[in-house]
Amino acid sequence: xxxxxxxxxxxxxxxxxxxxxxxxxxxxxxxxxxxxxxxxxxxxxxxxxxxxxxxxxxxxxxxxxxxxxxxxxxxxxxxxxxxxxxxxxxxxxxxxxxxxxxxxxxxxxxxxxxxxxxxxxxxxxxxxxxxxxxxxxxxxxxxxxxxxxxxxxxxxxxxxxxxxxxxxxxxxxxxxxxxxxxxxxxxxxxxxxxxxxxxxxxxxxxxxxxxxxxxxxxxxxxxxxxxxxxxxxxxxxxxxxxxxxxxxxxxxxxxxxxxxxxxxxxxxxxxxxxxxxxxxxxxxxxxxxxxxxxxxxxxxxxxx
Amino acid sequence: xxxxxxxxxxxxxxxxxxxxxxxxxxxxxxxxxxxxxxxxxxxxxxxxxxxxxxxxxxxxxxxxxxxxxxxxxxxxxxxxxxxxxxxxxxxxxxxxxxxxxxxxxxxxxxxxxxxxxxxxxxxxxxxxxxxxxxxxxxxxxxxxxxxxxxxxxxxxxxxxxxxxxxxxxxxxxxxxxxxxxxxxxxxxxxxxxxxxxxxxxxxxxxxxxxxxxxxxxxxxxxxxxxxxxxxxxxxxxxxxxxxxxxxxxxxxxxxxxxxxxxxxxxxxxxxxxxxxxxxxxxxxxxxxxxxxxxxxxxxxxxxxxxxxxxxxxxxxxxxxxxxxxxxxxxxxxxxxxxxxxxxxxxxxxxxxxxxxxxxxxxxxxxxxxxxxxxxxxxxxxxxxxxxxxxxxxxxxxxxxxxxxxxxxxxxxxxxxxxxxxxxxxxxxxxxxxxxx
Amino acid sequence: xxxxxxxxxxxxxxxxxxxxxxxxxxxxxxxxxxxxxxxxxxxxxxxxxxxxxxxxxxxxxxxxxxxxxxxxxxxxxxxxxxxxxxxxxxxxxxxxxxxxxxxxxxxxxxxxxxxxxxxxxxxxxxxxxxxxxxxxxxxxxxxxxxxxxxxxxxxxxxxxxxxxxxxxxxxxxxxxxxxxxxxxxxxxxxxxxxxxxxxxxxxxxxxxxxxxxxxxxxxxxxxxxxxxxxxxxxxxxxxxxxxxxxxxxxxxxxxxxxxxxxxxxxxxxxxxxxxxxxxxxxxxxxxxxxxxxxxxxxxxxxxxxxxxxxxxxxxxxxxxxxxxxx
Lengths: 304, 436, 326
Prior knowledge:
The complex is a heterotrimer of chains A (304), B (436) and C (326). With 304 residues, chain A is an all-alpha fold. Chain A is built from 14 helices and no strands. A two-stranded antiparallel ribbon of chain C has the order 1-2. Chain C is flat and about 75 Å long. Chain C: Belongs to the binding-protein-dependent transport system permease family.
C-alpha cells in the first residue's frame, strides 16, 4: 500500500530544492528543456492531434446524417443536413433535457461536497497530528484500489433499503466518497503549505479552525479548483453506478445515452446526435477552462 | 480566549455544516428534480408506462386518444429497445422497490418468472375485476399470466404468430419466384427453405445473404414447438429435447452453408442491414413487421412481402402489461391497461404496427387486414392462421436466458466456424452458468 | 470512530461559553479539544466513507458467502466458500481473467509508451503549445459511453470507417466484434484513445521538474538528445512512470464500460471473447441476477489488484535498494 503513497511524493524529492512560494503556480522557469521542436515534432504532434480530434469530427458527421447514409459504402466524410432533425428526435426519444439538468445537479453537488470534504480531511492528514493518522490515511489510500464494482451490490441494497432507487441522491452521496480527492489535497497541502506559517499563526493564538479559514483555504484554492474540475468531469462521465441506481425515468446524461438505443427506430445518426448533445457541455467547460485543466493535471501530477 | 472558543465552535459547526449541507444539498437536489410524477392534486394523474421493444401504443395514437377520453390523465412512456436491458432494469427496481412505473411491460419469456417467483411484487389484477375478461383472451395467453393460486398478474397485449418476410426485389434479382403462395409451397418444410437459400446464394446480388442471422432462424423454429427448455413440471429438459436438437441442427446447416449475413440481432449493424439489403429473408413474428418498417424505412415500401412460415405455425414472443405492487396509481393504471388491451385498441395497434392481438375479439376484427408496406400481404389471414394453429407453449423461468446462451453458441458456428459439437458444449456450459 | 470524537467534543462546548474565570479547566478543555479537533476535519469524509465505501465493501464479503438472487433477494441461502470454489472450475471466469490481462497489456503498454513519446515532444519549445496540450487532452473529457458508441461505429464490420480504410489499402475487412484478438484490439483502442493524452501531460509535468542542470551536464559530456532521453529523462521520470503504471493497471483491472458498450453485450461478445472480469461480474449480478456469485467475483478482483500493486511495490523497493547500493 505504501507503494501508492511513495511514488507521487517522490517527484518532489527529486525535484528542485527550492519550494515555490505557496499558492503560486508551479511553473518553474528554467526547469525542463527549452530546445526548439523540429518539423518532425510538429508532424508527429499534428498526427496525434488528428487522431484525438477525429472521433469528435466523426460524431458530428454521423449526427448530421441519416441512418441510411451511415450504411453506405464508401462512407460519407462530410457533415450532412440532418443535424437539427436528429437533435429533435433525440429530445423526443430520450429525455435529454432532463438528463442534462440531472447531470448538472449531480455533478455540481458531488463537486462541491467532494472538494469540501477532501480539503478538510486533506488538511488534517497533511498538517494536524492525531492518533491513528497513519492508519487512517493508509486505509483511505487503500480504498483507491477497490474496484467500483465491488461495493455495488450492497450499495444497491442500501439504497434500496433507503428507498432511494431512481432518485438523484442515490448517485450523489456515494459519489462524494473520493479517496483520491483526500490524497490529492493532502499532497497539495503538504507541499504548498509551509509548517512555519501554521506555527506562526499558532504563536499568535489562532485556533485550528481559524488557521483553516484564513490560511489553509486561500493557499489550497488552486488545488481545490483542480480537484473540482477533475471531480466534475468524472462525475459527469460516470455511468457504472448511475445505470444501476437510476433509470430512464430519472436519467443522467450517460444513462440517457445508454437508453437512447431504446427508441422505436434505433438510428445510428440519432444515437450519435445524442452522444454529441451529452458531450457538448463537457467540451464547453473544456473550451473555457482547458488551460486551467491542463495546468491542474500537470500540477496534480507533480504534487499528487 | 474568545478566539479559541469561537474557533472551537466554528470547527464543530464546520464539520456539522459540511455534513448536513452535503446531505441536504443532495436530498434537496434529488427531491426538487422530482422523481415522482404523482401530482394527483386536482384529480390530475400522470401515469408512467415503461416498455421494451415497440408495443406500438404511441405509434397508433392510443395515448392521445385515452387522454382525450380521460382529461385528468397524462401518460408518459419510456422504453428500452433491448428486452434484456429492460428486464435487468425492471428487476433492479423491483428489488429496490423504487422507480417503478405504473405500468410495466413483461415479455412472454419472463412471465413464468413473474408468476412463479415474483407474484408478491406485482398487483393481482383480480382485485380490479380482471377475471371478467378471461373469455376475451386466447386461452394460452391468459393462463400463462395466472399463478397457481389464481392471481392474475398481467393482461395480454400481443402474441407472436410467425411468418417469413422476404425481399421481392432481391428474390427477383436471384431469379427466384416472388409469389407468396408459390413460395409457401416451395418452403413447406425447413429443408425446402434451406434448399431455396442455397439456390439464392448461387445467383444472389453482391453482399446479400439468404437470411439475417441463424439466431433468428433458431428462434423462429423453436417457436413452433410446444415443449422447449422446460417440461410442464418445471424441469430443465432442453438437452434431451429433440425439438431443440432439430432447430439447432437446421441452424447449423444454414450457418455452414453460408446462408446467413452473420448479423447480431438488435445490433446497430443489424439495423443498418435492413435498409442496405444485406439479407433476403428474415423470420418474422408479427411484432417484427413494425421493426422492419422502421429500419428499412420509406425506401423499403413495396419491396417486402410475407409468406407462410416453413414447417407449420409457431409463436415467438408477445407481451403483457403488468402493474407493480409499488406503483403509485394502481387503479388508474388498471383502467388504462384494460383499455389498451381491449379488442378495438389491439386491432388498431395491429393495423399500425403489426403486433398481433391476443384478444379474440380483435383477431376477428382484423381477419382481412392487408399491409401496403408488405406488398399488400394479407397479414390478417397469414398471422391469424398461424395464431390459431400455434402450439400452447410450456414456459419456464429462465426461458429467455437459456435461449440467449444457445443462440450465442450458434453465432459461434455462424461467425467463427466453430464445430457444432463444440458450440453445443459451450451452450450447455452457458446455460449451467445462467441457472446458477 | 471519528463520529464519537466529534460527539465527545460537542457537549463540553457550553462549559466554556461564558467568560470563564477558571483558567485551569479551560486549559484542560483546550488540550482535549486540540487532540480531538483533527477528527472533526476528517469526520465528514469518513462518515460518508463508512456508509458508502467501507460498509458495502464488508457487506460484499458477507453476501459472497450466500446464494442470493436479485429476483428473490429476501431469501439468502448459506453457501460458505462455494461461490469462490465454483470460480476455479468456471471456464468463463478464467476466460474473463485472461481477457482482463490481455486487454490490460494491449491497452496499457502502447498507451504509456506513446504518452512518453508525446510528452518528450511536448517538452520542446513549440508554437501554440497550450492549444496542443489542451487538444491532446480532449479525449479525456469524453465519457466512456460516448467514446465507446463512436468507436463501436468506426469499428463496424460492414459499414465501419476503419474497415473501409482497410479495404482501400487492399486488405480484407476485419470482423472487429467476433475475432478474439481483433475485438480486444478494438476495445483497447478506446482505452488508449481516451487516456494517452492525459498520461502524456503527467509525464510532461514530470519532465519539467527534472533539473535543467542535469541536461546541461549531459550536453557537456557530449550526449545526444536520444542519450539524454535515456540517461536523464527516463531516470528522472521513474517515480512518475511507476505512478502511471500502477494507476493504469488498476484501471485495466477494473475495465468495464468499454467492453459493455462496445456491442451492448453483457457477455462480452458471443464467445466471451472480450469479456473482462468487471463485465463478468456485471453479467452474473445484473444479467443472471446471481448476486452472491457476483460478490465473490468482485472480491477476487479486489485481491487481484492488491496483489498487482503489491508486486509493483516490491519491484520498486528492490530496484531502489539496488540503486542505492550501487
